Protein 1
Amino acid sequence: MSGPWWATRRFALAAVLLAALPLIWFPLPPLTDLPVQLGRYRVMLGGDDAELLHAFYRFEWRPIGYLGVDLLVAALAPLTGLEPAVKATVIAIPMLMTGAMLWISHEVHGRVQPMALLALPFAYHLGFQFGFLNYSLAVALALAGLALWLRLGRQGRIGQRALIFTLVGALVWTAHVFGWLILGLLAFAAEVARQRAAGHRWPIAIIRGSIGCLPLALPAIMFLGWQPGSSGTGSDWLASLPLKPGWLVMSLRDRWRWFDVATILIVALLIYRAIRHPQYRLAMAPGLAALLLLALFVAMPFGSAYGDARIAPLVWIMALLAVRSDETVPVSERAMIALVGLALLGVRTAAGTASFAMESNVWARHLAALDHIPRGARLVSFVQVPCTPAWRLPRTVHLPSMALARRAAFANDQPDLGSAALLQVTMPGITGFANDPSQIVTAAPCPETPDFRTLHQALRAVPLNRFDHVWLIDATALDRRDLVGLRVVWRRGDDFLLAVARPRLSPGPSTD
């Protein structure tokens, strides 16, 4: 890269390193689903706790389309330990995504454009904040794959590209099948744009673009023998339509509503200005990709594991990467746009670091209970949440899995992904208290979330004869009557560790 400061290699390297800054200070990245992943990795690795863990879970490797971080942790953890391996892998994801976005801008426009800097904060997109690690890794790989696809196409190395992307497609599919779908869509948009630039009409460009993407189709063979598991949640597409604009606004949702919404508003206004300004151009490859992603976002049902919400940030990213400042745009204006992007990146990096610091402190306060949980405990946990979700992401709802990761205890918040899951619960006699969201409770009945029990209902319904400890987090609604048969072992504020007042059961059979 050469030219103005925002198009130099030095800036690109600085931006990639800056992407790591919000997460390097803390023992673990405080992402919502990270404890769930950490617990699964603990069972995967086994080690000295294998016998304890096998009383509760069965882990079996399967050729499924969401293995990316699992495989990396399996390779790194024996060298570094589990938590350092997870931390390093998680930090690498926004770094890879940042580098990929700058690379795409360079390949599309010949040099990094000022508007590309506005895309960089989206490395910490909503899916990453939720801790969807395999998906986030696959998206970062898909963006890097698009940059490579563009480069090989620009160089006319089509045959070599076909061979390389037979492997790249399989790699992204292995990381997460949804990332593979996104890579296919991005590559299709880029290839149609290339065919149009070669003078072909739209129908021919679409046909030739589809044929050009065939090397990416190899992983589709896997669907002959595997279907994604389902937790049984249904989707009402029509009912989800009014929620779509909200997910676009929440693409950078973290902690402060006004700040996150203001960021999206700035991005939207600058995209609108670029579209309307006669001296700005939209490159066809990322522009068409943005339109196709928007169509997929509208068509995707929300109930498919936040499927539509995951796509929303990519719409913004591709729209920003499409904008080209024509040479007739004054250098001072291009520099001003770049400075706005740099300022936004700096402010969001600082705010993200502060947000993670606050959440890390919250985690540390709750996780003090782990020091009092016996290894291999038959633990049932309940995390109280408000009926109406706050803008701040609910980062404590999966803390129970930290007991699995650090104490080899049972955790009732692992998701049920059906027969395709790597991890399955085998602990007997705990129907209704085996998987997520059995750990989530409320203070009072909530019309918005009728599937969640109240804390009172959960404590009265849980089969205490199958557990020896109960962990309560933020249990403001606890009543003395709920403590029948329980003894307080540890307390801090509204967090309680309770022992069941009956003999601990020996491990039972592995069927319910």
Protein 2
Amino acid sequence: MSKLIILRHGESEWNKLNLFTGWEDVSLTDQGKIEAKLAAFAIQNLKVNIDHAYSSALKRAKNTLEIVLYVLKKDIQITSDQSLNERNYGDLTGMNKDEARNKWGDEQVKLWRRSYEIAPENGESLKDTCDRTIPYFKKNILPKLYNGENVIIAAHGNSLRSIIMHVEELSVEEIINVEITTGIPIVYEYENKQIIKKTELFVKRY
């Protein structure tokens, strides 16, 4: 049996400002660092030995994972790769989400944020994101899970949505309603190359 722990980074500076972030490399806020620590305490309660740690190439994800591993007293190397980066929001990057809704309407902004195939100008759709995250997951992470090793991934709302879409075999219609909260670990248990359990860990918020 093995475990896959996925974790969206803690609150970033642009999350706090309600901006589309994408590939912009912004830092965690103080609240984001606290979220990472609280996530680590929740993971600690699992009493699981983490064998491998992966993050995107963006510092908000990598720093979240560094905090988690520090709390867990796990001295293992973090493998960072841009294949796990957030989706590129193109021309929306840096724009306030409420301002975008006022300009284009709630429905259009929801399509850009949650749909599978619709991309903002000069940006990526969730499908485009899947095209890089899923091959990376299949090649580098899934074999370790099948081998009984435990893995943690710290990444982003949409890169993790794409991985969830793959591992849960969700349809294009089902993934629209999937949202991932910052700092809340989700745990999948694998046995005989199948997911037998999914758990969203309880994290106390301050």
Protein 3
Amino acid sequence: LVSHESYARCVNELVCLDMANSQLFVDRLSRAWDNNDAVFPLDQRLPLPARQHILNVVKPTIIATSEGDTRIDGLPVEPGDAIVVATSGTSGVPKAAVLTMSAVEASARATTEYLNVTLRDMWLACLPPSHVGGLSVITRSLIMGTSLIAVPNFSPDSYAKAAQNGATLVSLVSTALQRIDPTLFRAIVLGGSRQSSQLPPNCIITYGLTETGSGVVYNGKALRGVELEIRDSIVYVRAPMLLRAYRDGTVPLDSNGWFCTRDRGTLSEDGVLSIEGREDDLIITGGENVWPEIVEDALRNFPSITDLCVVGVSDPEWGHAVHVWIVTTDARLISLNAIREHVKQTLPAHCAPQQLHIVSEIPRTALGKPQRSILVERLQTS
């Protein structure tokens, strides 16, 4: 028989960090790594049923709060595992990606190299650490020894105050750009959703997934060590920062180590990646392919539109019909005919929306991704 003390020394715990982003969060993560344990940041905004559901999926062995640690029945992690992050999918059963310390280190080093980060820099961590984009700011700072300011959430005030205190680097979602002075930071890393074509010169557009351990493509170019392939219009990634497996033990890599992103894209001759959209988001209407993001881009300069989302909705005649949900400052300027004519100025007629919905807000994830399935569900139940 193995004593409890001996068992504790040989088991790699999975510590659920059930606390807001803060210096306490950073310190508890660092202590877990010192003990060769892994961490799982729990989304603090989850309602109780969703919280319990994700805990059942992840199965941590310790719950760490600001009050202390509580041991619970769970499953240890493998030696070398560093973080477990819930995928940010908008529908279906949630998964949790397991990334090793070597993967987290590879991501930190590649990002630091691209951004020319030095010890004179300081990161602001203001995105939810329950998402890999927010967590990676913290992990790369710990690994590379870069100074860090961690705040519970983004606000224009916390952004400006961090700049006054010496922060030079930050990761944001594109919607935050409308609320801040981008010149206060040396570099702003943007991810999470399709970006506007007109961005400040110090903004870097990133592409990555939970499974890739944060961004692996910066301004269209793969980071060092990252390989990209396009197979049947789908983007595949092979890189040292890829996940080891999902928490349920399944491994989504093929026999040669490639990961299928399920994003459609193209790769130019000089290696620039362009993402068209999620494979599941493609709208096939009357036999024609319509990418929601392309239609959204065509409408962004329409007067009074502040936010929008395009989705395909099942239709008996067309298979799927193009619907657009719009947030506007003046509904009098918005009509289906005007929207259709505006789209047809730059895109084929089959891309023009067939239905229009005026709403007060577009549901989005914490990283700014539109939750298209929620809009369809609301429409079907209304």
